[in-house]
Design a protein that fits this description.
- The protein is 74% helix and 0% strand.
- It has 207 residues and is mainly alpha-helical.
- The chain starts with a helix and ends with a helix.
- The protein is globular.
- The chain has helices spanning 3-19, 21-31, 36-54, 59-73, 77-92, 101-119, 128-144, 149-167, 175-179, 190-205.
């Protein structure tokens, strides 16, 4: 497995954000500024375009460059966080042209850690992390148990979806939803939805 797999992942993420643009706009209109669908579509398209045209064989440099491209194309709060995720993920794969399955776990764990640090958020606070972390943990567990990458990413996508659904009942701690206090329980979190979509895209890229 080489960087072509990472490029395929970025392509699938870009495609699924395109497909769900209106859904994300609708969800974000309830709890945010309503621009999430446009930001994710534009940002991940820039990341994919950069990676696919780069000709870079170093996985770390490829992801870092994709993150920089996304940061420039989508400089909103969420766009910046996703870009940081890509760049942090790139740092752990720097110098690698051939990838093992567990390298994907390392990439996604670093992606999550970068967002957690920059966003000053924790698990259980009704954010992107609550959809993303279950996917990372499920992927790690499945691969450690000997599952194929295709089976493991499918399980990770299911776990991310479960995390997304669980986030709905959480109390919001950050941003505009937090102002609603207890009323934020029951509101669908658009960030956790983005996380779920990312893992669905990774599963599709891994078939």
């Amino acid at each position: 497995m080489n960087v072509s797999y990472l490029i395929k992942i970025l392509g699938e993420i870009s495609a699924i954000m395109d497909e769900n643009r209106d859904r994300l706009i609708e969800l974000d209109s309830v709890v945010g500024d309503g621009d999430l669908g446009l930001t994710m579509t534009k940002g991940f398209r820039a990341a994919y375009d950069n990676a696919s045209a780069s000709g870079i064989e170093d996985a770390g440099k490829l992801l870092y460059g994709a993150g920089k491209a996304m940061s420039s194309a989508a400089p909103s709060t969420m766009g910046t966080l996703m870009a940081i995720g890509l760049m942090q993920g790139g740092k752990v794969l720097k110098g690698k042209s051939e990838l093992a399955d567990m390298d994907i776990v390392d990439f996604l764990a670093a992606y999550e850690a970068g967002i957690m640090e920059k966003g000053k958020a924790k698990l259980g606070e009704k954010t992107f992390l609550d959809g993303f972390d279950p996917g990372v943990q499920a992927l790690k567990s499945a691969l450690s148990a000997g599952d194929s990458l295709a089976d493991a990413t499918a399980k990770a996508a299911d776990a991310a979806e479960a995390g997304f659904n669980a986030a709905t009942d959480m109390l919001a701690v950050h941003g505009k939803p937090a102002v609603k206090g207890e009323a934020s329980r029951g509101m669908i979190d658009p960030g956790a939805c983005v996380a779920m979509l990312i893992f669905k895209a990774i599963a599709k890229a891994s078939v």
